[in-house]
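User: tokens in, sequence out, please.
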């Protein structure tokens, strides 16, 4: 699939199903002018996610997994930014939301690894055979399992800790001085929201990319 076509399709789907749905729930209609603004913003957003994925796994696989990565990135970013709006709480400051997203990535990359590499993907849990020590599989197996189980936990806890801390800081400063003093902390909050979205999305891309790369013979 061509890069521009893949980005356009995912951006259109996100606009129609996610962003416009949220705006309508808030009583805002998606008119022609609003739609044009959304088009340009989502094209840039999805295009950035595609470039990030393409650098890790190549353009073909990036286009294949772009609906997943684009939706994850947009959802995490919107939830992070939501916490900077007075009266709203970010959904990503709770473990249950983040753990669900991380488990989704965990399931996807393991299924994708088995789909792409078959039993070679499962065999890598037993350690390298070529140039390695195959009889040490009883040592490699628990280490590999523990490292993979730690991935969704680290993804969810990292996102929750940073967003929760940032939200608490902004809330504390706003409660003390409600006018101009919170502005630098709000700007810092925007930066934290962007960085945490980038980290979550990039790690998800890396996990999938590692799972679907051609495995060495075991």
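Assistant: Sequence out:
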């Amino acid at each position: 699939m061509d890069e521009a076509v893949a980005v356009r399709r995912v951006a259109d789907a996100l606009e129609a199903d996610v962003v416009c749905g949220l705006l309508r729930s808030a009583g805002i209609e998606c008119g022609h002018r609003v739609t044009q603004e959304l088009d340009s913003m989502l094209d840039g957003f999805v295009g950035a996610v595609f470039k990030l994925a393409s650098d890790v796994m190549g353009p073909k696989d990036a286009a294949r997994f772009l609906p997943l990565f684009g939706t994850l990135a947009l959802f995490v970013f919107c939830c992070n930014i939501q916490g900077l709006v007075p009266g709203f709480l970010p959904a990503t400051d709770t473990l249950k939301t983040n753990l669900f997203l991380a488990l989704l990535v965990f399931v996807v990359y393991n299924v994708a690894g088995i789909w792409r590499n078959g039993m070679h993907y499962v065999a890598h849990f037993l350690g390298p055979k070529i140039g390695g020590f195959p009889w040490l599989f009883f040592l490699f197996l628990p280490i590999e399992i523990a490292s993979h189980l730690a991935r969704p936990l680290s993804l969810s806890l990292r996102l929750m800790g940073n967003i929760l801390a940032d939200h608490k800081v902004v809330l504390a400063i706003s409660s003390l001085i409600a006018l101009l003093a919170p502005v630098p902390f709000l700007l810092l909050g925007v930066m934290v929201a962007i960085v945490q979205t980038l980290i979550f999305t990039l790690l998800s891309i890396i996990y999938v990319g590692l799972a679907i790369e051609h495995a060495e013979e075991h």
